[in-house]
């Protein structure tokens, strides 16, 4: 992706009715879960984003037969011939979610060889919660160079307490427990919508899983899991970016497939800013009509149903032009404010103190050359580029492509002047350069 970039130009209010893709953070783990079965499963509403393509590569490297109709967003995976338990470093390096095959491989082969995960740069993103609890259920873990070698004589059912409601650790342990004789409980479990979608899939496969208050997942092991058909849950994070695109440009958008029950606190914050939100029957469908004078709001990110860390960056773009001071605290990842520096290049007034950002709204942002540092930072910079004076060039588009399927096309359909381009972007005049050169 060396010389690819996104070019966004200041435009008018965005309008439209837009469809939503399936959730990346559901489909990746659901694809990994198919290793628990033997036979052909069909997944629908699968986004054709590069992370999905990476997970397809991973499944094929294990021996699965995979066909993906990217136009229809339908994925067929035959796991009958899966006969490998080693995940190569180059596959792991591309996507941290590859760690999610550990649980299924332990069930199928009682062992796995996994290179240490790669993925975004948002903090060290260790896997200690995964490993310490795998050890508790009978897994021996050895580090050999860049590889984690794990094996077990017999997985055993245990009561597990997570230090933190980690999405990945919850998912990995739940998949490992699905065929373990006895009852495994995961206390302080993550219950994000994407985790719930995985639970739906595992139950379709034949797993016996209950969710108990306040945040306990109880798994009763079964002897076998069968292939399934499943429509992946819609992506609340793509919905969030599209709602923010209408909000930041003073427009309106209707998302008939959006699950408002997956976005409660995010929608509340948009309403507190003054935007008009209409939610459809049984919380299906969301429409936003933007206010022309958005007010500052503050929030801190937290595990679901708290404010989603994956919407923190794009929401900050909107706060940059809200009236007043907003305070954002990132509590989930220790290094997920790298987009602040890039937004400041566009004229945003943001003060950083550790995990807290104080944003003082400004009347205008200015186009600049900016770099996306992770998937969600890329959507923040695109949103800012839609309202910043002049042009904005965003590099690091591999992050944008990892997390969203042709989102720039959806924004164009709403009236945005945005284009994915290839070539030398250095010559492109952004507002900042124009004003710099004219002042020289
Ligand atoms: C999932 O990552 C999502 N990714 C992330 O989305 C999302 O931001 C995150 O959950 C939180 O909602 C996928 O589902 C593929 P965690 P995950 O384990 O499972 C620390 C995106 O942009 N931690 O809940 O990796 C960790 O460092 C991505 O789509 C440990 O310390 O998140 C983080 O600070 C980004 N040790 C916090 O817990 C561990 O063993 C939450 O991590 C595991 C995690």
Verbal overview:
By secondary structure, the protein is an alpha/beta fold. Helices cover 33% and strands 26% of the residues. The model has no long low-confidence stretch (mean pLDDT 95). The protein binds ligand EPZ. The site of ligand EPZ has 28 residues, from helix 1, helix 5, helix 6 and helix 12.
Shape: globular
Distance between the termini: 34 Å
- Molecules bound to protein: ligand EPZ
Q: How much helicity do the residues have? A: 25-40%
Return Rg in Å. Answer: 22 Å
CATH homologous superfamily grouping of the largest domain:
Enolpyruvate transferase domain
- Beta-strand content estimate: 25-35%
What would CATH call the architecture of the largest domain?
Answer: Alpha-beta prism
Mean pLDDT: 95
How many helical elements?
15
- Quaternary state of this entry equals single chain
Number of strands: 24
CATH class of the largest domain reads Alpha Beta
CATH topology of the largest domain: UDP-n-acetylglucosamine1-carboxyvinyl-transferase, Chain
Strand order across the largest sheet: 22-23-1-24
Main attributes of the structure:
2 domains, alpha/beta, globular, UDP-n-acetylglucosamine1-carboxyvinyl-transferase, Chain, four-stranded mixed β-sheet, binds ligand EPZ, 15 helices, 440 residues
